[in-house]
Design a protein that fits this description.
Elements: H1 2-13, E1 20-23, H2 27-36, E2 43-46, H3 48-63, H4 70-87, H5 94-107, H6 142-151, H7 154-160, H8 170-182, H9 191-208, E3 223-226, E4 236-239, H10 247-262, H11 264-276, H12 291-308
Parallel strand pairs: 1-2
Antiparallel strand pairs: 3-4
Helix pairs in contact: 3-4, 3-6, 4-5, 5-6, 8-9, 10-11
Amino acid sequence: MEGLKRSIGLLRRNDLHLSTLITDRHRQVAKWVREELCPEGTQHYFDVWHIGKSLGKALDTASKDRQCEQLQLWRPAIVNHLYWTAASTPDGNPGVMEAKWRSLVNHIQDIHDHDTPAFSSCAHAPLEGDQRDKEWLEPGSMAAVKLEGIITRTSLLKDVRQLSPQHQTYSLEAFHSLILHFAPKHTGFSYQGMYSRLLLAALHYNHNANRETARRSDGLERYSVRYPRFRKGAWVVVPIKEKASYGYATSLIEALRESYMDSPKALQEVSANLSACAPAPIAKSFEQIPKEEAVSLYLAQQSRYKKLN
């Protein structure tokens, strides 16, 4: 939360306006964005993955009931429908997304025409033969009733209306993971060191973010099959990307060498200015207590503890 506020403050100081913001559905963040940014014209969306994860947990819980075991078979399709709801609505129209999501209640009971003008019928062709691998839910059955309760939950419907239709947060999360490669948490760095490593991480990410899929000797693309823990045994196919390139490092070293050769003092001044901008340690922002007083209070506390024992 504090990081978001600082980032928005930085944008405002540089006269930059945030047109679109995509986050998880943290309620405190959503409230702050609604009150502080939305009046300025910022559009706030929720990342689909986070809502899909919560939805999957609700379905897992419901399917534990013996009368609702069918829901476990429908779980992947229901979560996929959530993704489709967002991806098939590129303009992010909240009414259309809600109508598409609500249509799942009918679809899963083999009803494909709906009484909502925004989405009057399912978009798929008739499902017959091999296209059907799950039994439809019986209208009025315990499984159908419980699923409808999950799908039409007020809080979920509000979140669906804010699903991000085109972009998600996974690229940012990948960048944060990359930062740990350049600045691992188990090592402390100075302000200059951390600043430099963050810049290097950004350069590396931007240079390698759009790598092509690697190819075999016969020209076919390479893929791997993985079993993520959160999929609980289900497999996923992942394209194997080409190896990362570090060409940016050579260009950076050459640029620094030329800058130093042309003006050594100018480069030293830049380093000095960066050091001068280093913020004070966090401990300095708190009120300091004299050491003698702190030790006295500590000894008094220890004395009381010994008497109790």
